[in-house]
Amino acid sequence: MMLDESPMKSLPLMPPRAFTAPNDDAPLTRVSLLYIEQRINLYLRFGCPLRVHQIDRWRRCAVFPPAQLFCRIRWESNDYGTTRWQLMVLQSGRPEEGRQRVRGVRPGAHILLNAEGERNVRAVLLQIDAIEAQCIEPADVSPTYWRLLSNRLAAREPLPDYDADRHAAWLAGRALQ
User: Does the reported pTM lie above 0.90?
Assistant: First the structure.
């Protein structure tokens, strides 16, 4: 075999199969995750994916059904230290809804919160820890609360707490829908 010949040339290129929900024809949201030691860490802080596919040693793909909340954290560094901190709380969308394009999230998602920089990311992580300390799953928190945190971060206002009363009101309202 010559150097320019490869066995892959003879195989037809097939588009990747769209993931679908087990009991629904709605396409799922795929979230790319990555870990390269001392360089980049792209991971989920919370969320309940249907499954996680291990692509290779460094890459994974988490798959979410429509209307699920999840938090993705991106940390990057170089030889001189940390270059990027990013925390995004996202909600997977339904096919009929418009979604925002997010790098590494296919086909896109609703951005509820986007925190950039160490100070903002640490502030949101403290809120997530406080929510978990109350035995509330952060993925079950009201999407409105995450939008409120985003707006408060942008305005440099104090971040409001999420308590059991607010959570009970959210669950009661969701049950009525």
Answer: no
